[in-house]
């Protein structure tokens, strides 16, 4: 009798919890629109005003279809098959604002969504979806003077191969033939490549808008492959910086200085990176403090005063992350560095995690502080 009573109470508790969960989840507003990152003419995936995403995949012979969102495709939204052979499903809750990678698993095989554009992440080309951000104006394409992003191929004796980089030149660079500019070397994260900061990050649009508003000094941005993907995820500690440091410092920087109008001293050269690119930035700036005068770690660790002690003093140390990451560590690092006499700035992106809106916002905060 007691056992039956306990079982009944347990069942009631589970039912009550489920009802409360359903009650706490707001009703989904049916104002879905195609994602801004869809292939031309494609209606799905769609996003609504609350930040939910809805997917529709044609797979008439499939037994199961799931959409996995985020770097590496964590989690999953189960799609339901309709009589027309299309599988449809909506995320369980609103997504964070900004850009997200995702892929589709059909009967155990991993594929990209044919309705969405692809972006290089997770060491492969992945589908992308954009949840409109309330502050997206700072990286919007506006009617302002625009710079150029051009591909360059530079020789690398250390690797025995030609290598690629993308260079952003600010508005007016082509016309002002005698003016020289500072340079920011900006690194991507693990699983990504040199296309990430301009494609996913909108670095060029962020700079165009800041320059048009008179909020930042014009400078070049150089984005190259960080040789990060040879190390598997979860074994980042095994990564050796030496090969990339040689490519960057001994090969790419001299090539850029020889082929672009740059200011070539450390006070006019910065290095920053997101995630693993931040780890690369920390390693290289500590190894080569005479090369870079400005440091930026974007969700990429922190500096301690003892890291910098005895080295050429940086003009600026910028450290950032999302509020859903480890903001206390970022704030403490800046506080400790300031107490030790360094020009340190921390920034925390509200309501974001380890994702591109965090890094877009971080670049937007960092750029006006550079080359003062």
TrEMBL record:
InterPro entries: AB_hydrolase_fold, Esterase-like, Ig-like_fold, Ig_E-set, Mycobacterial_A85_antigen. It comes from the Bacteria. GO terms for molecular function: hydrolase activity. PROSITE patterns: PROKAR_LIPOPROTEIN. Keywords: Hydrolase, Signal. The keyword Hydrolase applies. Residues 1-23 form the signal peptide. Pfam families: Esterase (PF00756). This is Alpha/beta hydrolase-fold protein. The lineage of its organism: Bacteria, Pseudomonadati, Bacteroidota, Cytophagia, Cytophagales.
